[in-house]
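#onboarding

Welcome to the new folks! Below is a worked example of what a typical request in this channel looks like: someone posts a single protein sequence, and someone else replies with the predicted structure as tokens. Don't worry about understanding the tokens yet, we'll cover that in week two.

Example request:
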Amino acid sequence: MDVSVADVWKKVVDNLSLSIGQESVNLWIKPVTPISLNEDTFTISVPNNFFSQWIEKNQQFNIEQILKKEYSKDIKLGYKIEKDISEQMSKVPSIPTHPDIPVSSMIKDQLNSKYTFDRFIVGNSNRFASGCAEAVTKNPGKQFNPLFIYGGVGLGKTHLMHAIGNELKKNFPNFRILYVTCEKFASDFIEAIRFPEKMTEFKSKYRNLDCLLIDDIQFLVGKDSSQEEFFNIFNTLKDSGKQIVIASDRPQDKLEVEERLISRFKWGNTVDIQAPDTETRIAILKKKAAEEGFTVPDDVIMFIASQIKSNIRELEGTLLRVTSFIKFTNTPFTLDSVKTILKDVIVPDENAKITIDKIQQVVAEQYSLTVKDLKVKKRTAQLAMPRQIAMYLARSLTDMSTTEIGDTFGGRDHTTVMHAYNKINKKMEDDAFFSAQINKIIKMIKE
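Example response:
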């Protein structure tokens, strides 16, 4: 092969990496091999006509512009197709449905049978999300479609998704259900591209479902081709009245994906799961202890619940660590022994002594108001912003639930607190001066 041709093609690949992203280059461009330049035609070898069709549709103009710059003349892109799959691909778009075939004979649903609604501890932080998830299982594809669940790591999103799938299996035995992570979906798609004989299987797997549960959708970021395919699958399922459930670690507007995907994610219902309040954490620990057959002293339960506040998986894992150590070392099960066991895990919380009263007092002083002003029902501009700042700080610096915070501000509800938190958070991101003001208040509160 002419070395100069290889060098030029390397420049093409480098240029495309900057313009279309590494994922698309790895998927569509890296498998391509340059062959020759004959007069005004630069010929490349592609694995199959799936590749040539994609390049021709999406990047041929850009590639020809790069070639023109390198050779100082107009260059056309030519293709040598290693394997013609036209006949095979023509059979793909029409995917038959098989309502009479049991789920197990078509796909593995990947559901964990341990994750059920019965084992999901409901509290103020997740009550709405849990209720919507259960509603989906009674009327799939109708009321909340798609259902978009977001929240931090280890708060129960995955548990709810599996619970939806398991309940649907019970209510609708012939339903075709699939739980999949975003990374697995992208991997399946890439494999189908590289091995076209698997494309029919891929499309049947994802388009021939009654319910698709896809986790960690935020990992679609930077995967342009996977986003395109998921967009098509989403439309196919939605148009057929099939249920879609999506989980993410952030709300739709924070996802760095195509706007058309974000728009579709908002079509149904969006619910968030927050960090559990103290009562919920205690309930989770007691239920976990009962499931594992452990008798745990109440003061130990209270101690662990007071130390691990933002991650349910970490909360349960800490309990298992303690009980395992006690069991295998015959150590007395006391609060002191537990503190010793966890001395390398428990980090002193600098916010532990921060109270809602202190937050309200400092904010009120900064805006020449009284604490009473922050609690009255008035919505004047003079009061609204300081009150929202105080709510934001209460949510950020304490482990109080949004319902508890709302109660301390004159009986306001959960949604009011979340609106205040989101508004102040957004303003801090957009306004550096405002962010500095908030950080100054935080410093005063901690002092």
